[in-house]
Design goal:
750 residues, alpha+beta, eight-stranded mixed beta sheet, six-stranded mixed beta sheet, 19 helices, binds ligand MTE, binds hypoxanthine, binds dioxothiomolybdenum(VI) ion
Length: 750
Amino acid sequence: MKNIDSFGHVRGESLFVDDINTNHGTLYGLAFDSPKAHGIIKNVDYSKAKNLNGVIKIFTYKDILGENQIGGIIPDEPLWAENEVHFIGQPIAFIVAESEAIAKKARALITIKIEEKPVITTAKEAKEKGEFINAPRSFKLGDTTTSFKNCEYVIEGETFSNGQEHLYLETQGCYAIPMENGNIKITSSTQGPTSVQKTVAKVLGIAMHKIEVDVIRLGGGFGGKEDQATPWAVMAAVAVQYLKKPVKYILSRQDDLRMTGKRHPYESTFKIGISKDLKIQAYEVEFLQNSGAAADLSPAIAERTLFHATNSYFIPNVTTTVHSCRTNLPPNTAFRGFGGPQGMFVIEAAIAQVAEKLGIDKKIIQEVNLLHENDEFSYGQIATQVEIKNSWTSAKNKFNLDKLESEITHFNNSNTQFKKGISLMPITFGISFTNTPMNHARALVHIYQDGSVGISTGAVEMGQSVNTKMLQIASQTLGIASSKVKLETTNTTRVANTSPTAASATADLNGKAVLQACNTLIERLTNVAATMLSIDKSAVSFKNETVFINGEKSNLNWEKVVEQAMLERVSLTENAHYTTPIIHFDKTKEKGHPFAYHVYGTAITIVTLDCLRGTYETDAVKIIHDFGNSMNIGIDKGQVEGGLVQGIGWMTLEEISYNNEGKLLSNALSTYKVPDVFSAPKSIEIIPLETTGTKMAILKSKAVGEPPLMYGIGAYFAIQNAIKKFNPNYNLKFNAPFTPEKVLIGLYEK
Ligand code: MTE
Ligand code: HPA
Ligand code: MOS
């Protein structure tokens, strides 16, 4: 089945926040933000801006009736700065005017005096100065200290992976309108409608029930709207509370780039020890996470880095530590993979370094150390239904790795200017919010009296096609055509207290709730149909909008049963609640079983370098991916392709750059390069791994949103491999992204 939005998207008919018809009298908001990365606000002169014709009011923290606080995990982030600013782009005030153009003009008229304080832009510097978001976290398995003594080879090294801009096509934005009795309705482009509702209520000093948040769909989120869609909605709501007029605020691309956080850059140091038989015996790593100026989701992201620090390998002795370092950058935030990719890059670097020292192929060490059934992760979970070796071997066989490698060797022997490189990248990614209490969802299903169906869940559609999956589950369970089912907007009055659409778990959590609700409804209708046909209910089933008796078609159809249910006053509505069983985690011990299951896969990446220019092309990525038993292979392959290309972008082209004053230099699409059709792989081949799936996944169809991003890490090592072919003296460096400049330097270093 196709994504149900595709028709509307290509015709430009799908609605996003900026497309909603505005009410009469709508006003337009715009944040005034700090031009300095750190300092004391000495004076802000709003007088000229206030006097501009068409400016209605300029809001500051003084206008807040509740708390000036939007921090989710840690209350360390004001909505509007009071006396001190901590990053360029930090909101200080909110201009509300009759038009966007007037608001913009007004913003240019505001002058500010800031007494500057020292600016920290790197995690290392923050650590040296003792600037942390919270206490460090550490996972331990076995005993690394003793184990290193018994290792044949012990190697140390360091890595850096840079941030990444989400670059959702739809920028952040919201539209807030006053309702009666001080209630406010907000349409927001958020992954977390409940966090918007909760934070608005807190800042406005009113109850959550007075705030309704509605989400139609997002033009992409990628984690960037899990926490950071909230401030704009809160600003608009503060203005609505005061002015009692609708307020719209859509960020311009440049404002969005400057003011929002990105993937966390990580600086890491590792020590890895292996035995003569190439088994990794011990691994120690210290991650320095560049968290930015406030916590945002950093502590949860840091935690997931630890969960994925050993990627797809079993290592008996592990000590991992992460420090969330406070810097003067916009608070960094969730981004596809949620800290996992940063952790996996380091172990892949460590293995590459070991292989280099021993003068052997990296993949030999990778293969020897792949996880087996019943191996223990550093966080105590026992690996079950492990498919990593299966995916690895399938990749080698199905894509004929030997042949690929001999072709590459032949190419490299017969070319001087161009060199090819290859890598294998295994992935193992845990599915569930690492914070166990967040793993719940609800679905509200109405069968209308004409037999059509409306479904509300907590899931937010952001291009990943979760709505299509929900619709498939309902139409399949109820035995009706997909055209009879409609997915409603995600709305806090219909489905409350939701977790954000994140952690790749949305289809599992909300899908299981939809399934449960539909099963309950079909049970009721089965009773009605059995009475109508005067047969036992065990004989009744629903298929193709028809009642079947012991598998034989009857004359009774779906509409008639629904009509009769109405007459008999049987409820045609069901609200189901699902929570993931089994999972738990004890933070005091850092042990438990946090994941419902893991997703596995292996990617083979082949690149060609132009050794004169340092440029490169990804020739092919060949993937064996564990979809479980995919419920929609077209959509799921789309997620693998999108995730892969986004991961390659992070590892190769996309270079976030701040200067020492904390100013974003890569502040436009002319200076920040995401993969386009020319830099995406020339071919992507995806073969589903044949497995039985897991009952923990919806219809045994495994979560697919984030794991494929980490295949992109393979591109880094394929490029490295190719450089080595040109310049055997090249010293391995682990400094992502591997931009053409860095490649060129590597090609010619002595
Ligand atoms: N795919 C598209 N097209 N757009 C997105 O914003 N977000 C990714 C992934 N795939 C995203 C996407 C992220 S970060 C996550 S966590 C998952 O989708 C969330 O959706 P799911 O839980 O339904 O997989
Ligand atoms: N993944 C993604 N988003 C989250 C998580 C997680 O594990 N925890 C909280 N938000
Ligand atoms: Mo995804 S980073 O969990 O929104």
